[in-house]
Write a sequence for this structure.
């Protein structure tokens, strides 16, 4: 069997079933499950084969039965297979989530098995942790260089006074550094440093030394080039192997891969690697509800083993070791960030298409639009949480 990832294989037309013939649409309306799905979508103001941008166009008669049987996984996979389409996919998900329709979809067998496994096993153990690096962050630096800003920030930007993605991502980096009260000569530990954008920014503009860790080989390669000539050390290392004493710790977009079974140890490890008077900033996507909230399609195709934390889970896990100095929610800004990435991805597709399949394009656009719709519906949050080990005298006040 070939080791070439599916998304890197040449696209063959028979792998992508898509027909816009009127008779195909007529057949879909007579398909098993049509009425149940159409009635469900109508609760969100979405029509099957309607005329609005958020309406869906169905091309395969088995679409309705597949969604009813497999839920979120069936919805996403059938989109990748070209069984349905939507002109404004982000608006479709916004409406679906605002109406709470995801609660009405069935939980597929795979989703139930994953939930059971998450309770029985540590799905984010060191031996399993590198899966997300291989599956997602190692997709290809060409993809992320085309889609992201010059700082290579693959996390929520801060749009308070920004008009472009570049301005918003730089504002996010400045916000983090100011919250951490960085001064020249400090040693900063960046857990989950990505392509080194934050490390390079902090070293260049604040005169600090940075140690960054990632579990992605491709991130490591590009991050080292990005930080060349700066006081930055990028390592291919799991956070559980850290043994140092930093003045500050920052972790951006990494906690989503830690998993509930590891939250307590994560906070304990951070404490052991921070000096007594240090500060720790955690930047993470958050869930409204506690539990093993894992979307089966996202788990299979985008972030294997990921799990979004709730506020109560973070508070409970951090309570033994930390004083929570500040909690900042700007989740609505992730909608703007994701839509900016989508625009750049589409603009770059003519060049990327030589290396990636059409099925990959549909998968990646589905992922970006689904997440944008979720943040727009306020179903997902983005939190920056500032911790200290023993409380900062006089408190911490950060201009936002």
């Amino acid at each position: 069997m070939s080791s070439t990832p599916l998304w890197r294989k040449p696209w063959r037309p028979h792998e992508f079933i898509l027909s816009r013939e009127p008779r195909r649409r007529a057949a879909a309306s007579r398909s098993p499950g049509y009425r149940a799905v159409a009635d469900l979508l109508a609760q969100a103001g979405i029509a099957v084969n309607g005329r609005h941008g958020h309406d869906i166009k169905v091309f395969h008669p088995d679409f309705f039965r597949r969604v009813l049987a497999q839920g979120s996984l069936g919805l996403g996979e059938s989109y990748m297979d070209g069984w349905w389409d939507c002109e404004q996919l982000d608006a479709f998900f916004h409406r679906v989530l605002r109406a709470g329709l995801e609660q009405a979809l069935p939980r597929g067998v795979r989703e139930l098995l994953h939930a059971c496994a998450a309770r029985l096993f540590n799905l984010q153990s060191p031996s399993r942790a590198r899966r997300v690096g291989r599956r997602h962050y190692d997709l290809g630096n060409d993809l992320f260089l085309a889609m992201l800003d010059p700082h290579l920030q693959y996390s929520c930007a801060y749009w308070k006074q920004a008009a472009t993605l570049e301005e918003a991502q730089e504002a996010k980096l400045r916000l983090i550094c100011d919250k951490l009260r960085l001064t020249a000569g400090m040693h900063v530990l960046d857990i989950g440093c990505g392509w080194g954008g934050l490390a390079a920014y902090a070293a260049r503009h604040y005169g600090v030394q940075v140690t960054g860790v990632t579990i992605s080989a491709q991130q490591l390669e590009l991050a080292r080039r990005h930080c060349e000539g700066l006081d930055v050390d990028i390592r291919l290392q799991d956070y559980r192997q850290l043994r140092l004493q930093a003045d500050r710790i920052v972790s951006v977009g990494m906690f989503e891969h830690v998993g509930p079974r590891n939250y307590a140890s994560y906070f304990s490890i951070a404490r052991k690697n921070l000096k007594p008077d240090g500060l720790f900033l955690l930047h993470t996507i958050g869930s409204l509800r506690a539990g093993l909230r894992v979307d089966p399609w996202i788990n299979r195709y985008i972030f294997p083993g990921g799990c979004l934390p709730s506020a109560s889970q973070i508070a409970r896990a951090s309570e033994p070791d930390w004083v929570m100095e500040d909690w900042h929610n700007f989740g609505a800004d992730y909608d703007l960030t994701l839509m900016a990435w989508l625009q750049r991805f589409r603009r770059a597709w003519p060049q990327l298409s030589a290396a990636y399949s059409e099925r990959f394009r549909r998968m990646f656009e589905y992922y970006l639009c689904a997440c944008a719709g979720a943040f727009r519906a306020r179903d997902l949050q983005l939190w920056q949480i500032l911790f200290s080990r023993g409380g900062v005298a006089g408190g911490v006040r950060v201009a936002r």
About this structure: The chain has two domains: 6-106, 127-388. The chain is about 45% helix and 15% strand.
